[in-house]
Amino acid sequence: MRSSDDRVRLGPWGWDAQWESEFQARGGGTSEPARVLSVDRGSCLLITTAGEVRAPAAGRLREAPPAAGDWVVLDGGAIQAILPRRSRFVRQSSGAATRRQVVAANVDTVFLMTDVTADFNLRRMERYLVVAFESGARPVILLGKSDLTADPGAPLREMEAVAQGVAVHAISPLTATGLEQLDPYMGPARTVALLGSSGVGKSTLINVLAGRSLLATGPVREGDGRGRHTTTRRLLVRLPGGALVIDTPGLRELLPWDALEGMHQTFDDLEILAQECRFSDCRHQGEPGCAVAAALESGELDSSRLENYRKLRREQQFQARRRDEQLERAHRREERRLHRHYRKIMVDKRRR
């Protein structure tokens, strides 16, 4: 095992005394720490004290593999453990199965990126905010392609109205407009993740911040002014100034996973309103003394924001039921397995 002095070389990648303590509690022998740069078909690209290496996940980690940004314990040419995450972006995996997927880990700030053209969607941003608040990282909203609108202040004000105090910055990577606003988030060894739809300019932003082409980008489509999706995997890169950035593929769907706290923070205004209703069990569907209905009538509350809140609540409730059903099925399978095992023991005893 390499000494703690050797592991100081990982400082530029975010290694610190707390990570050292976590590693000491789990590592030993020939093991060493490494940070995950990318994951590709079960194999991880890692940064270690000796440089970049590629390694598979071992044992049960193959079912729940590390994510970009994770710190892991490397031993025997394989990843044996994941150090406890300080933050993590979790969503319901795409497809029919109810299974969580960690998009990125150990992020200090997450840039929730959209643009002021075809991608601008307040309801989608609320969904991103739920995931960001739940992650434990600091969310920041970026409105890209601000050079393509005559009045970038209009979408900025609209976004600030739903951002619940989250900083919103209008930028244009192509013209370098507004990029100085990102400096406070991009300190050495600080990790930033970019989340957003396909084609909003995440890879372009990273290339501009890096001062060179680190990631592939696509041209803007003539039909709707949207960029083409180019990132196909989550990738952690180090910028010249020392900041660490995780680029992610455009998320075609984002279903939050068990995001109760994220819901509270994203829709704090709604929940404060609901406390003013006459009845504590008010469903905001025509009951007398409903403060939410009064806010809708006065224009204080946007009806589409309320409907999005209800939709996300329904999704969370549905997922919770599905998870409970899966646990119950797994419990029944285990009971049947134990019953078969017991019967086999009894049969073997009788034969003896």
Q: Which descriptors apply to this entry?
A:
alpha/beta; six-stranded mixed β-sheet; five-stranded antiparallel β-sheet; 9 helices; 13 strands; 21% strand; 352 residues; flat
Could you explain the architecture of this structure?
34% of the residues lie in helices and 21% in strands. With 352 residues, it is α/β, with parallel strands linked by helices. The strands form 3 sheets. It has a 6-stranded mixed sheet with strand order 10-9-8-11-13-12, sandwiched between helices. It has a 5-stranded antiparallel sheet with strand order 3-2-1-4-5. A two-stranded antiparallel sheet has the order 6-7. 36% of the residues are buried.
Global mean pLDDT: 84
Strand order of the largest sheet: 10-9-8-11-13-12
Q: Give the quaternary arrangement of the chains.
A: single chain
Class by helix and strand content? Answer: alpha/beta
Counted beta strands: 13
SSE pattern, N- to C-terminal: HHEEEEEEEEHEHEEHEEHHHH
H/I helix tally: 9
Protein topology:
Blueprint: H1 4-7, H2 17-26, E1 32-40, E2 43-48, E3 51-56, E4 71-75, E5 78-82, E6 88-92, E7 100-105, E8 109-115, H3 122-135, E9 138-144, H4 153-162, E10 168-170, E11 191-196, H5 202-210, E12 235-238, E13 244-247, H6 260-266, H7 268-274, H8 291-298, H9 303-351
Parallel strand pairs: 8-9, 8-11, 9-10, 11-13
Antiparallel strand pairs: 1-2, 1-4, 2-3, 4-5, 6-7, 12-13
Helix pairs in contact: 3-6, 3-9
